Amino acid sequence: LQDTDEFILPTGANKTRGRFELAFFTIGGCCMTGATFGALNGLRLGLKETQNMAWSKPRNVQILNMVTRQGALWANTLGSLALLYSAFGVIIEKTRGAEDDLNTIAAGTLTGMLYKSTGRV
């Protein structure tokens, strides 16, 4: 086994990713997760709403519409929350000049407060 690093890094670069770099992974991951859960929820709702219909093209279209509508809704919601959380995290880190758990707690708290302030339940 070699005892050297796997990647070549520019001089002065950190070996770990910063909060800004991780934001892209967080936002994308939340969008994909939301789309998956939304599609599964849409399939459940579509099958439930069309249970009295015979298997036909109109039923398939109705189920597919519910899957895509719910998938987009969930992806949009989770992606927006991840964007807010990441933006707050980066802003707090740059303002404080420190990378610690307090940034994460503050970003999560601010995101939750902003999300709840819109009147959503």
Lay out the secondary structure.
Elements: H1 19-49, H2 57-96, H3 101-117
Overview of this protein structure:
This protein has helices spanning 19-49, 57-96, 101-117. It has a domain at 31-84. Helix 1 (19-49) packs antiparallel against helix 2 (57-96) and helix 2 (57-96) crosses helix 3. The mean pLDDT is 87. 19% of the residues are buried. It is mainly alpha-helical.
Descriptive terms for the model:
single chain; 121 residues; mainly alpha; 0% strand
Strand content: under 5%
How many helices does DSSP assign? 3
Helices and strands: which structural class? mainly alpha
Quick one: how many beta strands?
A: 0
**Biggest sheet character:** none
Helical amount: over 70%
Order of helices and strands: HHH
Distance between the termini: 54 Å
Which outline best applies? elongated
Radius of gyration: 21 Å
GO molecular function: protein transmembrane transporter activity
Subcellular location: Membrane
Transmembrane segments: 22-43, 73-92
Keywords: Membrane, Transmembrane, Transmembrane helix
